[in-house]
Structures are given as C-alpha cells and as structure tokens.
Design goal:
The chain has 250 residues and is mainly alpha-helical. Helix content is 75%, strand content 0%. It starts with a helix and ends with a helix.
Length: 250
C-alpha cells in the first residue's frame, strides 16, 4: 500500500512538473517565434506583390488611355481630310458649272495694285495644324504633360474657330484630371458637353464629369452623368465604362 502511494505521488509530481514547462519547449526551442516570423514574411511578400501589381495595372491603364487617344486623334484627322476633299470637289464642280465672266480691266496705276502695308500676316491653316500637332505630340510622344497644358490653352486662344478646339478642351481636361486639378478639369469637359454637341469627344467628356463627381464625393451628381452617357450614347465605349461605374456604386 505504501509502495502504491509513493508511485502515485511520483506520478502527480511528474505531471505537475510537465504542466509548468514553458510552451516554447514543445516542438523545439523558438518554434512559435519562427512560425510567426515566417507568417510575417509571407504577409509582407504578398503585400509587396499586390503593390507591384497595382503599379503595373496603373501603368497599363495610362498606356491604354494614350493609345486610345492616339487612335481617336488619327480617326478624327482622317475624317477632316475626307471632309476637306469633299469640300474641294464641291467647289470645283460649282466653279465648272458657273457662267464665265469677262475679266475686269487692269488697274491704271501701281498704287492701286500695291498690297497694304503694316499689320501681321494672317495665320494659315498650316499654322493651325502645326500648333495642334505640336500640342498633341507633347502628350503622346514627349509625354511632357506640364508643357502640353499651356500648349493646348494657347491653341484655343489663337484658333477659337478651329475644328480642333473641342479636342483641345478635352485634352486639357484629361491632363488636368491626371494632376487631380478636378475643378479646372471639370470646366474643360463641361465646355465640350455644352458648346460642342456634335463632337466625338462629348460622350467621353460626360463620362469624365461623372468620374470627377465621384472623386469629389458627389455620388448623386456622378450617377446623373453616367446615366446621361447611357441614355445619349448607349452603344459607345463610354457607355460601357459608365455602366461599370454605376455597378460599382451599388
């Protein structure tokens, strides 16, 4: 009986001693810390991978936006060339069908034929095209966005009647939007929407106005712009993006 009691006491003491042993001793010294460190390294690696992926996505989106702008620009210029050819052909046909008129007699003095002096020569269509091309190339080729902003602003001031003016307003809006100058950007897109209803930049300008409203935490205004894109330009690429933004706001 005494032997049994001694054995029982020894077992109790052994169990108590094991229960008081530190947790780190189970599974080897420092195993918990090592596992925590490994988890932290894995979390950091995943976080860095997500950051890298986001950077790559942003770069791809910027490149896609520039490529889209280039394609739109080329398409617009082609339309302008075709329209000018049509106008020239119509003018030639009208001239061919017009009755011939006898030429006026030559002026009697050299003073009457001399050009007026003073003043600057009028700017030609070639100057207009060159100025616009220079501004566009600052964006698409040089990627000098800071220089492109005043270049487009000058173009609008110098050639207010140009067919490229709505495009220039749109480019200005894009550049200012990228710099998060939302109020100034909004003014440029609004100008396209209000003053140039037939511009091919109008649906994208409406879309951008919606995006600006979202950036400024005005979801009600953003919805109105996105819904306008869908109702007025339902089959356009801008409509698809507007729908995606509406879905994201639900």
């Amino acid at each position: 009986m005494m032997k049994f009691a001694a054995i029982s006491m020894a077992a109790v003491l052994s169990t108590a001693s094991w229960a008081q042993a530190p947790v780190a001793s189970v599974g080897g010294s420092g195993s918990v810390n090592e596992r925590l460190a490994e988890l932290e390294r894995g979390f950091s690696a995943r976080s860095q991978a997500q950051i890298d992926q986001q950077r790559q996505l942003n770069a791809l989106q910027q490149e896609l936006s520039e490529m889209r702008g280039l394609l739109e620009e080329q398409s617009y210029r082609l339309e302008q060339v075709i329209e000018r050819q049509r106008s020239m052909l119509a003018a030639q046909q009208e001239a061919a069908s017009a009755p011939r008129v006898a030429p006026s007699p030559a002026p009697s003095s050299e003073a009457e034929t001399a050009p007026e002096s003073g003043g600057s020569a009028p700017e030609t269509a070639g100057d207009e095209q060159a100025a616009y091309d220079k501004a566009v190339n600052l964006v698409l080729q040089d990627k000098d966005y800071n220089a492109a902003i005043p270049a487009f602003a000058r173009f609008i001031t110098q050639y207010p009647q140009s067919t490229y003016v709505p495009n220039a307003h749109y480019w200005l809006g894009q550049l200012l939007f990228a710099q998060k100058r939302f109020d100034q950007s909004k003014a440029q897109f609004a100008r396209v929407v209000e003053a140039y209803p037939k511009s091919n930049k109008r649906p994208d300008s409406l879309l951008k106005l919606g995006l600006i409203a979202r950036e400024q935490q005005d979801d009600g205004q953003a919805r109105q712009y996105f819904e306008r894109v869908l109702s007025e330009y339902g089959s356009s690429g801008a409509a698809r993006l507007a729908q995606e933004n509406l879905d994201a706001m639900k």
